[in-house]
Write a structure and sequence with these properties.
single chain; alpha/beta; 8-stranded parallel beta barrel; two-stranded antiparallel sheet; 12 helices; 45% helix; binds glyceraldehyde-3-phosphate; binds 1,3-dihydroxyacetonephosphate; binds zinc ion
């Protein structure tokens, strides 16, 4: 049994309470490799932003769970080395789909877990979430649950179309499960293709796709019923057009990629939404930088020469999110 407190990590309870009070959101950045982790920590140390390091079950398989636990412990030490006196870093399981996976993460030093029962019938989602909460809370590990289904693919959770969260269910769900935060569905989805072109309009000047707005009315209804309760937004990458263009002009092919406009996320961050999940934008930043170096210098074969610029680009991206979108800078001195 590894206790996350011994690794210098924190759970989400205090971060969320402060974020709701302060009208900002905590960044939840996924990572799979050293460069992403370095970039996240550098960006957060330089901006003094609390952060949630997210690991999906796929990332856990890719990186190895033992290595991940030491990487998280190393991240805390690296943050201090960078001059961040009191790093507020949470290690979180993203989209856990079984009790066993969540338990294993609690036992391995995670400070927060998500149990995603959103594809299950309502009562089964409650039963599974409650079981995870009862186990995790024994170790002061916080639990995120999900109600409503996002369009697209959520790890192994597959949904054909988006089903918005039903506000009339949230009080019953939160009370009966005892979860610490709730991911809701208001029109976001995972990946770089969040909307089909036919769901969007076209900007007459640029010809670029403009997605439909998020369902803020659903969010407001949820907030009314659960005042002060931490709400989570998955699928919140913006899919920056400049990265898509670099990828497409350097041998890639991402036609009609589209994300959530940043003004929508800024608005959400000021509400009870206190955790915003971003993975795809980091993948795009990384891939754009790597493609550019390899296209411009075809003789290059030292991974540091293309992973280094990719890391620098991700630092820029994370700082932009923290300062310009989520408003979490300066919240963890
Ligand atoms: O929600 C999905 C995350 O972006 C993780 O994706 O399962 O490919 O690691 P992944
Ligand atoms: P994006 O694909 O929009 O980055 O969403 C990531 C996410 O929700 C991770 O759980
Ligand atoms: Zn997600």
């Amino acid at each position: 049994m590894v206790n996350y407190k011994d690794l210098g990590l924190v759970n989400t309870r205090e971060m969320f309470a402060k974020a709701i009070d302060g009208g900002y959101a905590i960044p939840a950045f996924n990572f799979n490799n050293m460069e992403q982790l370095q970039a996240i920590i550098k960006a957060c140390a330089e901006t003094k932003s609390p952060v949630i390091l997210q690991v999906s079950s796929g990332a856990r398989k890719y990186a190895n769970q033992t290595l991940l636990r030491y990487m998280a412990e190393g991240a805390v030490e690296y943050a201090k080395e960078l001059g961040w006196e009191h790093p507020q870093i949470c290690l979180h399981l993203d989209h856990g789909d079984t009790f066993e996976l969540c338990k294993s993460c609690v036992d391995f030093g995670f400070s927060s877990v998500m149990i995603d029962g959103s594809s299950l019938p309502y009562e089964e989602n409650i039963a599974l979430t409650k079981k995870v909460v009862e186990y995790a809370h024994q170790y002061d590990v916080t639990v995120e649950a999900e109600l409503g289904v996002l369009a697209g693919v959520e790890d192994d959770v597959v949904a054909e179309e988006s089903h918005y969260t039903k506000p009339e269910e949230v009080i019953d769900f939160a009370t009966r499960t005892g979860c610490d935060s709730l991911a809701i569905s208001i029109g976001t989805s995972h990946g770089a293709y969040k909307f089909k072109p036919e769901q969007c309009t076209r900007d007459p000047q640029t010809g670029k796709l403009v997605p439909p707005p998020l369902a803020f009315d659903v969010l407001e209804e949820v907030e009314k019923r659960l005042p002060g309760f931490p709400i989570v937004l998955h699928g919140s990458s913006s899919v920056p057009q400049e990265y898509v263009d670099i990828i497409n002009t350097h041998g890639g092919n991402l036609p009609d990629a589209v994300g959530i406009p940043e003004d929508q996320l800024r608005k959400a961050a000021k509400s009870a939404v206190c955790k915003i999940n971003i993975d795809s934008d980091s993948r795009l930043a990384f891939t754009a930088a790597v493609r550019k170096v390899l296209a411009e210098k075809p003789g290059e074969f030292d991974p540091r020469k293309y992973c280094g610029p990719a890391r620098d680009e991700m630092v820029k991206l994370y700082k932009h999110k923290i300062i310009e979108v989520l408003g979490s800078d300066g919240k963890a001195e």
